[in-house]
Predict the 3D structure of the following.
Amino acid sequence: MKKIELNTKTKPGKKKGGRFWWSLIRSKSGFLGFLIVIVVILVALFAPFVAPYDPYEMNLKNRLQQPTLSISEKGEIPHIMGTDSIGRDLFSRIVYGSRISLILGITASVLGGTVGILLGTLAAFYRGKLDSIISWMINVQLAFPFTLLAIFILAVFGSGLEKLVLVLAWGSWVSYARVIRGQVLTVKEKEYVDAGKVIGVGNFGLMWKYILPNAISPVIVVATFTVASVILSEASLSFLGLGVSPEIPAWGGMLGDGRNYLQDSWWIATFPGLAILFTVLGLNLFGDWLRDYFDPRLRYE
């Protein structure tokens, strides 16, 4: 008797990788967002080589120095984005701040995504009381503004990088859970899932081998938007003084420090704000293209 192998994943095209890149290049906004994201990642990875100064080095003689491209009489590297209120090079701090934003965004997104995917999958697969409980948890969290809850938690338990990651992850799992729950509800009714049950595959095997591989694509899109949302949330909390420690170069913290010098030293708040703007814009543009790319109703030839 000929052995029949059950394919649990959708068959990709022979040139799926090429189709992906060709579709990205054809999309002006998606490609622009992709380039911005790549630039931010490269700057974060090679921050020691990009930053001309130590981001923690203070020099009160150079405090509130305007942005300049000219080399000083002493031959010092120019402060192309100026200096802050205690003489630290703003460009170097923004470069190192990209590390903080990406670490927080990616870490919180991974933690929140792991919890959300697990709970959403279990809720959709088993339904019943478990689905009701998890759905109730999602609705309760969505009923409260996340920023207010984050401010309350950090004000009570104190701020810090680890606590900030946990708070941001706690605020992001809902998006993953809602998306994966809807996908699993659809995929679990497919014929290959029924075939898996017939040949004796257990519940864990059905979820891991048959359902999740075919339901995970929209989660990639959610992850892109979640990273952007986490970066904005971190900037908001750091602006309020509830984020990372003040001495650590974080874009939100630098933006908060510059609000007292807007009239005379506009650059202290302007450049960190632009860094946040372009990073979030790039992630949103790239995520918007990914959403269209994974949409089964659209075809990219």
About this structure: The CA atoms of residues 30 and 286 lie 5 Å apart. Residues 90-126 form the longest helix (37 residues).
